[in-house]
Write a structure and sequence with these properties.
Blueprint (H helix, E strand, L loop, with lengths): L1 H36 L5 E5 L10 H9 L4 E4 L6 H12 L6 E6 L2 H8 L6 E7 L10 H7 L11 E7 L5 E8 L1 H8 L5 H9 L4 E2 L18 E6 L7 H11 L2 E5 L5 H4 L1 H15 L1
Parallel strand pairs: 1-2, 1-3, 3-4, 4-8, 8-9
Antiparallel strand pairs: 5-6, 6-7
Helix pairs in contact: 2-10, 3-4, 6-7
Amino acid sequence: MTSKKVLPLAVAALTVGALALGVGSASASSAETTQSDAKVKPTIVLVHGAWADGSSWSAVTAKLQSAGYTVDVEANPLRGLTTDAQYLRDLLATIPGPVVLVGHSYGGMVTTSAATGNPNVKALVYVDAFIPDQGDSVGSLAAAVPGSELDPNSSIVTVPIHDAAGKVVNADVYIKPNLFAGLFAGGIPAKQAAGLAATQRPLTASTLSETLDGVPAWQTIPSWDLIGTADKVIPAAGQQFMAKRAGAHVTTVDAPHLSMISDPDAVTGVIVAAARATC
């Protein structure tokens, strides 16, 4: 009888002790987390543009990671502004804590749409990018300021997209490989530029006329802009116009459209400046 009573009492005592330890551990953990959170750096989310993929951010990613930042390089679908922005919006929803959102070229269209209303996005960084206002499209912004050498009549190749019934419903747009280096990759070694041309990912033709219908994120989120003065795709004058309209902090660098490849130090520097200023 005595042994039967002792065992439950012993178990009860151990349970109380464990619960007490648990509460103490939770309190200590909470205090440690609070102190840690104050020092946590934002996650840097990098969004590539058309005719590119996530590898275009490789050098910048390595530099940011070396500086202690968590980096998420989004695989931009390039299927249309509405679709691409929703995909990014869903990705951002999986990331806890503050975010610095970076868009290159067409990626700027996507980030400007996806970040609206997201309190975790503390800064927007544009890199040789479109910075749209409500009602703008890639096509309208490209035509707003003359100077782009990307001529849709001579620079592109299209591949039709068929539905299940065989009807052409859209087209994928590629840059002609022999023109890619001159347009996008001036100053980048020829072998590397040839690889970029061969691995380019297409944008759907309909994306070029799709407009930003919502409020642009830069109206409520501070923005930074790196402008490549040797950009032949989005002329520097056009980028300056968009940056001024958005109230962005502007940095200029003598670089082509793919400045994150040709000058990753400058691009990384702008991203870190945005992170330090807002997080």
